[in-house]
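Predict the 3D structure for this chain.
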Amino acid sequence: MNTDFINNIGLTHYLVLAALLFMMGMAGVLLRRNVIVLLMSVELMLNSVNLTFIAFSKYLGILDGHIMVFFVMTIAAAEAAVGLALAVSIFKRFNEVNIRFFEHLKG
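Done. Predicted structure below.
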């Protein structure tokens, strides 16, 4: 198997892929009303940021990007836990996970 194309992947390729992933996640956040899809879109945006950190870390030859990815993954796990808890709470109350039910969370 010829693997020369892997060595020809540059920083620009990673950044373009990360930008596409971020735009897809942003479109999901802005256009969808389902809480679960919203959380998945946020995860997609965080993973695009992780890809950017890793790409710069590889091409600059430093490990700072790897450490930042660790922190981003920690924040993403906490965000997912809180978001899913809110989604379960909303589902128990309204039997649906639509974002418009967050309007009822006002004090």
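Residues 36 and 78 are 15 Å apart (CA to CA).
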